[in-house]
Design goal:
Length: 333
């Protein structure tokens, strides 16, 4: 089965087995299959954060579990459970439409609700973990249901327990979020502040923030259905304050983002651009001309060719700045 239609990179890669999971009722069937056929398993949501380098010798599960359910509600907050296969874009739009704050800065991110917990998606001074209460999973080795609390998820920068080898056999079926019914919009991110000033919006609503974030993303990021990509390919590297200041002496215009622990986050896209790679292309694999953090498939690139571009960016940044870039995209070799 060709996986190209199920990933936003649209790269040709085959898998031995593929199944679509729409309800938890089918999980025992999958467990029995894996018990009789002990093959590797990979769980796909929207396929917006994955790069297959080669064919996958195992079972690919397309997580399509849908549904939204209010778990609890008070005067100030609401807890809502969402199926892992729900579109993240649609989920954020729905919450904003209800006037529930907490995810509006994460507007227009491709992917699914389940992926938001796996990846701890984040943008514009907000991360999924800020609102996640718990994550419902099933162990594909035993069929047992387990609910992970927020603390048990071990959320980090673009990471969670579900990205570790010991927990990759857990499939997420639902994620519960707590949202604010009396939200205070987050406007600390410079790009958001700039647009608010340009539009003369002194007291923005979460709808304003949602619209602004969507506008910013569409202006600088390619539509994955038109120009195939997986969003931000690299994590923004974190360095010590001392290293950041040394780098800024040579590059005064370098953007720095101080973190609460005293370290400093750098802009991976800016680093790659300074290496002269923005818009670089080799065949049908390349780096997006408007944002160096995005690797793209212009047509018929292979996973190996995309990986070569990624390695070029990593090597160039390492040689020029002494900084190691780490892929955010899951690379399946």
């Amino acid at each position: 089965m060709n996986l190209a239609p199920y990933t936003t990179f649209a790269l040709s890669a085959q898998c031995d087995h593929l199944t679509i999971l729409e309800t938890v009722d089918r999980i025992p069937e999958i467990v029995r299959f894996l018990d009789s056929n002990p093959v590797p398993v990979f769980i796909l949501g929207n396929g917006s954060n994955v790069l297959f380098i080669d064919d996958f010798s195992g079972l690919v599960i397309l997580n399509r579990i849908k549904g939204l359910r209010v778990v609890s509600e008070s005067e100030d907050a609401v807890s809502i459970e969402a199926g892992a296969g729900e579109s993240w874009r649609d989920f954020v739009s729905y919450c904003v439409g209800c006037g529930w704050g907490g995810v509006e800065n994460l507007a227009d991110i491709p992917g699914t609700v389940g992926a938001s917990a796996v990846q701890n998606v984040g943008a514009y001074d907000m991360e999924a973990e800020n609102t996640i209460v718990n994550v419902t999973t099933y162990n594909l080795q035993t069929g047992e249901k387990r609910i992970f609390s927020k603390q048990e998820c071990r959320f980090g920068y673009r990471s969670s327990i579900f990205k570790t080898s010991d927990y990759k056999h857990f499939i997420i079926t639902h994620v519960t979020y707590q949202l604010n019914k009396k939200p205070v919009p987050r406007t600390s991110y410079k790009a958001i502040q700039t647009v608010l000033m340009e539009k003369n919006i002194p007291s923005p609503t979460i709808r304003d923030i949602y619209n602004i974030v969507t506008e910013i993303r569409k202006a600088k990021l390619p539509d994955e259905t038109v120009l195939h990509n997986a969003g931000s390919f690299f994590k923004n590297p974190v360095v010590s304050m001392e290293q950041a200041h040394k780098m800024q002496q040579n590059y005064p215009e370098m953007p720095l983002f101080p973190l609460p622990d005293g370290s400093v986050k750098l802009a991976a896209g800016w680093l790659i651009e300074q290496c002269g790679l923005k818009g670089y292309r080799d065949g049908d694999a390349g780096i997006y001309e408007k944002q160096a953090l995005i690797l793209v498939n212009y047509g018929s690139a292979t996973g190996a060719e995309i990986l070569c571009i990624a390695q070029l960016a990593m090597q160039s940044v390492k040689e020029k700045f002494g900084v190691t870039l780490e892929p955010e995209v899951m690379i399946i070799a």
